[in-house]
Each structure stands twice: as C-alpha cells, then as structure tokens.
Design goal:
Dihydrodipicolinate Reductase, domain 2; alpha/beta; 9 helices; 38% helix; Rossmann fold
C-alpha cells in the first residue's frame, strides 16, 4: 500500500504492551506508526521503539496532540489516565483504541462485533481476559441460556507491569460487565491470578458456565468455530479443555505469542494487541470503501 493510503497512527505508553504494539504495527501493511509517546525519556520501552526506527517522545499525550492529527491512537497506558487522553483527542477526529480496562467507549471484541470499529471513534477492548473469553462465552450464549458465568484468568507475574497491577479492580469490573453484556447473563464473576512460578506459566483463561438447556454436540461445534475465528488474528490461541454436562460447561483457553519478540508467557499482551491492530486495519479498509 502506498504511504499516502496508510493510516497515520500513534501509541501512548511504552511498557511491554506499547512496545509489542509498535512491533505489530510495524508489520502492518496499512498502518504507519508516526509516534510512540511515553513519559520517561530514559525508559527501556522508548529506547526499544527508537531502535525499531519509530519516532519517540517523552511528552505523553501532549506530544501526541502537538504532532497530530492522527487517524488512530492506541492507548496502552492505564485506566486512570485514559479519560484525560480521550478528552484531549475527542475534538481532533482521531479514533482512540483503549487497551486499558477503563470501561468507557464502545466495547468491541473482534469476531463478535468487530464491524462496529468502522463507525465508532472511541473503542474499548475490555481486557486481555475479556478478549480471550468473550468470543467463546458469546457463542455459548447463542446455544443455551447461561444463568451464571465465572472466568478465572491466570498470567505470569512477569507479564504484568505496574499499570496492570494498579488496574486490577477496573480489570475485574470492566471484564465482568462486558461478559454480562455479550452473553445476557445476569451474574458474572471474574477472578485474576498472577503467578510467580518458574518457568512462567502461559496465559490461561478458565470459564465455567451454568445453564439448564445445554445441547452438547452443537455447543462443541460452536466453540470450535469461535476458536478458529480468534486464531485468524491470534495464531497461538487454543482451547485446551472443553467439558460439557447437562447443566455445566467448562472451557479453558491458552494464548501463546507468535514470533520471537514476546516471551511465551505473555499471551495476555499478544491477544489484546492483536485485537487492537486488527480493529485499526478494519477501520482503514472501511475508510477506503
């Protein structure tokens, strides 16, 4: 694609998520990363982004506004900062894709309602656990009527930075609200485990669904189709366990990053970043129609 047809994009945040996001954008044919903005000029993340050849700034959102406008900005900072970022960008016409668990904007999960990305300028990606669980839970809710859903996300401590740890309350609240929205289930419980085990465990999401009208064969087929749809943009996504009884469904998924840049335990980073880039690319395709 010619340079003048690419979307001009920026990333706010230079932690593990922001740096991997920059790497994924670099490999996109339709996105042109014009800035990675952090707040510490000496941070390892900004240095790595510069080594990849991207312009960088320690000016945070002020640098993004000053160097804009951008077609898309990815917010890879923290839930507390996101509201100010949207307030600063709202009037610029930029599409803001929120990778924090702030819980504002239009909730989007590719494969479920990704088509909304073309029509909305403030997109909320829920959380890494939400991106892993909701495609499966949504398809289950099309085959039965869940009365209770429990989701337990387990990730390696090494893949959870300071912002992730500070945002755990928002992560739980935003993920449980999104699960209720996408499944129509009245009660959803979300738990998070950060494991210090060595070797570091893969990112794993275990789901338990209680329902009264379960038909095992169609449900198993639907879960397999949903997993295939996620693998189209997250190759390391797989269902590792599926148990279906008359009143209970238990599903476990794991995510292993593709490529060599991310450690194998950082599937949480891989899935939410892959979703963010896909939505930006879909926005680009819609703008050319």
């Amino acid at each position: 694609m010619a340079a003048d047809e690419q979307l001009r994009v920026a990333v706010i945040g230079a932690g593990l998520i922001g740096v991997d996001l920059a790497d994924k954008i670099r490999r996109s044919a339709v996105l042109d990363l014009a800035l990675v903005a952090g707040r510490d000029r000496d941070s390892l993340g900004l240095r790595r982004a510069a080594e990849m050849g991207h312009p960088t700034s320690a000016g945070g959102i002020r640098a993004v506004v000053a160097s804009g406008p951008y077609d898309v900005v990815f917010d890879a900072t923290n839930a507390e900062s996101h509201a100010a970022h949207w307030a600063a960008l709202r009037a610029t016409g930029t599409t803001l894709i929120d990778l924090t668990p702030r819980g504002e904007g239009t909730v989007v999960v590719p494969g479920v309602n990704g088509t909304l990305a073309a029509d909305c300028r403030h997109l909320n990606l829920v959380s890494c656990g939400g991106q892993a669980a909701i495609p499966v839970l949504h398809t289950i809710s099309q085959r039965c009527t869940p009365t209770y859903i429990e989701v337990v996300s387990t990730g390696a401590s090494a893949s959870a930075g300071r912002a992730t740890r500070l945002n755990l309350d928002q992560y739980i609240a935003t993920t449980s609200a999104a699960i209720r929205t996408f499944t129509g289930t009245p009660e959803a419980k979300v738990l998070v485990n950060l494991s210090p085990a060595r070797p570091a465990p893969p990112f794993r999401v275990a789901m338990t669904v209680l329902a009264d009208d379960i038909r095992p064969a169609p449900l198993r087929t639907s879960v397999a189709v949903a997993a295939d749809a996620v693998r189209a943009y997250v190759p390391g996504y797989k269902v590792t366990s599926l148990s279906v009884a008359t009143d209970r469904i238990q599903v476990v998924v794991e995510v292993t990053p593709a490529g060599d840049r991310l450690p194998r335990h950082a599937g949480s980073v891989d899935i939410i970043n892959a979703a963010a880039v896909l939505l930006a690319e879909q926005s680009s395709a819609a703008s050319r129609r």
